Amino acid sequence: MKQYKDKYDKMANEPVKKLISSLAVPTIITMLVSAVYNMADSYFVGKIDTTSVAAIGVVFSVMTLLQAIGFFLGNGSGILISTYLGEKKKETAQIYANVAFFTAFIIGIIVAVAGIFFSRNIAYMLGATETTIDAASGYLKYILIGAPFILCSFVMNNQLRYQGSALYSMFGILSGSLLNILIDPLFIFTFKLGVEGAAIATIISQFIGFIVLLIGTRRGENIRITIKQFKPKGEIFLNISKNGLPSLARQGIQTVATVSLNFACAKYGDAAVAGMNVFNRVMFLGMAVVIGLGQGFQPVCSFNNGAKNYKRVYDGYKFTAIVSTCAITVLSVAAFLFAPQLIALFRDDPQVIEIGAKALRIQCVVMPLLGYCTTSNMLMQSLKISGKATILALARQGIFYVPLVFLLPYIFGLNGITYVQAAADVLSFIITIFLVTPKAKELRQSSK
Q1: Are residues 148 and 206 in contact, defined by beta-carbon separation less than 8 angstroms?
Q2: CA distance 18 to 323
Q3: DSSP-assigned states of every residue in 171-209
C-alpha cells in the first residue's frame, strides 16, 4: 500500500475512487447517525401522542434553519480552506476557518437570547396551532438556547471534512448523536419532562459533540481554532458568503418548505402534520447517503480544482454521481416495500401511517433522480460557480416546492400534499440537466 508523505500528497495523488470513498464512508456514517438522531426525538415523543409529534415537527424547521446557517459558514469557509490548502496557502486558510467559527458563535448567542424571550411568538410564526403551541414553544426554547454550540458544530464539521479529516468530523457528530439517543428516554419519561425533555437531551448532546469537534481541530495537521486568527474583514465575509450561498439556499429553503408544509397541512389536522413530518424524516435517511457521498467528493473537487488537476475533478464527479444513484435506487425500493412499517415506527396512528406511507411511496418512484441532482449541485458549488449552484440549491425545496405545496392541495385536497415533493424533484432534475451539462462537458474535455 502506497504511503503518502502528507495530506497534500494524498489529496493530489491518491486514486480518486479510493480517496472519495475514504472520505465518504465516515461522512455517510455521520449523516446516517445524524438522521437517526434527528428521528430519535420523533420516535420517543411518538410514545406520548400525535399532537406532540406534530409539535416537534413544527420546530424541525428551526433545526433546518440553524443547519442552513452552520453550513453557510462551514461550507463557505471550507471550500476556500480546501482551495487554499491546494494552493499551499495554509495561513490564509487558518484565517478563514476562525472567522467562520467565531461568526457562528456570535450569531448563536443572538439566537439563544431570542429563544429565551420570544419562543412562543416564533412557534406561532412556524405554523404552530392552538393544540400544539405549548409543546412546540417549550421544545423550541431549549433548542434555541443551544444554538451557539449547534452552529459551531456544523461549522467545524464541514471545515474538518474539507481538510480531508472526515474521521474527526465523524467522531464529533457521532458522540453527540449517540448520546442524544441514549438520554432522550431518560429526560422524556424518567424525569417526566415530556417534549421539553427531548429538547434538553438534544442540547446536552450537541454540547458534547461540540467539545469533541473542537478537540478534533487540534489533532494532526488540522487548522486550529484560536481567537488570535479571528481577523474579520469585508473581503473575507464576502468570499465566505459567495461560496456558502448555495448551502444557505439549499438548507434555508428547507426551512421555508417545512413552514409552508405545516401551514398547508394544518387545516387537515394534527395527523396530517405528523404524517408528513414523519415522512420527511424517513426520507432523509436515503438523502443522508446521497449527501454523504457528495460531501466525500466536495473536498476532492475543491482541492484539485485549486491545484488545476481537472481530470481528477471530472473523474470524481462521474464516480460520485453513479454510486449515489445506485445507492439511492436500492434504498428507494426497500422504502417503497416497507413504507407503512417505517412510518409506524414513529407513530402507530392509522391516519398518520396512511398519509405518511402514501407520500413515501410516491417519493420513492423519483428518488433515484436525486443522486445526479445532488452530486451536480455540489460540483457547481465546489467549483465556485455560485450563481448556478444557488439556483440548483433553491430549485428542489423552493422554486418548485413552495408553489406546489399550496397549488396541489388546492386541486387534489389532502392527496395533493403527498404529491408535492415528487413533482418538485422531477422539475429539479430537468433544470439540473440544463445548467450542469455544459460544465460537465467542459470538464471532460479539460480532463483529456
Answers
A1: no
A2: 13
A3: HHHHHHHHHHHHHHHIIIIIS--HHHHHHHHHHHHHHHH
CA dist 431 and 408 (Å) reads 21
The span from the CA of 29 to the CA of 177, in Å, is 11
Per residue of the chain (448 residues), give pLDDT as tens.
465 667 778 888 899 999 999 989 888 887 787 777 767 777 788 788 878 887 887 888 888 889 889 999 999 999 999 989 888 899 999 999 999 999 999 999 999 999 999 999 999 998 888 888 999 999 999 999 999 999 999 999 999 989 988 889 889 888 988 899 899 999 999 999 999 999 999 999 999 999 999 999 999 889 999 999 999 999 999 999 999 988 888 778 888 888 899 889 988 888 898 889 889 888 888 888 998 899 899 999 989 988 889 999 999 999 999 999 999 999 999 999 999 999 998 878 899 999 999 999 999 999 999 999 999 999 998 998 988 998 998 999 899 999 999 999 999 998 999 999 999 999 999 999 999 999 999 999 987 7
For residues 287, 353, 50 and 52, what is the CA-based torsion angle, rounded to 10 degrees?
A: -10
Instruction: Give dist(CA 250, CA 64) in Å, integer.
Output: 10
> What are the cell numbers at 220?
494532526
Instruction: Say which amino acid occupies 380.
Output: M
On whether the CB atoms of residues 77 and 159 are closer than 8 A, the answer is: yes
**Phi, psi dihedral angles at 229 (to 5 degrees):** -95, 10
Tell me which residue has cell 481567537: 227
